[in-house]
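The records we work with from here on pair a chain with its fold. Taken together, the tokens spell out the fold as the letters spell out the chain. To see the layout at work, look at the sequence and tokens printed below.
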Amino acid sequence: MRGAVAADRLLARPDRPDAVYGLFDPNGNDLLAAARRYGLRVPEDLLLVCCSESTVYAATEPPVTTLSLKPRRIGTAVVQLLIDAIEGINTDGPVEQVIPTELIVRTSSQRRPHRTKVSPPRSPSGD
């Protein structure tokens, strides 16, 4: 409910953004619904990306681009680091670990290029 209210407030502004990143699920659905209420077309008027692990966004209209932070991988890595610390496995300095994310690009973040009609060149005057 709070996400829907925030989406409405954001898209009702006269200086509304032309792109939005929804940090929590179901922000993508909240933003899609708010865009419809305000007559905004996604992606033509509003680009949209949402942080989510849900496959539901592949079936929305339009499909929403998602960023997966891979929380299960993060949880597994954190548990392993905790086990290593409890077991006294020593490292020389802080442990740094990079967990890859996954960006699934879908229609909601792909603005189509504007088509420009090009007229054929005119003949110089007097010819």
About this structure: The longest strand covers residues 47-51. The longest helix spans residues 71-86.
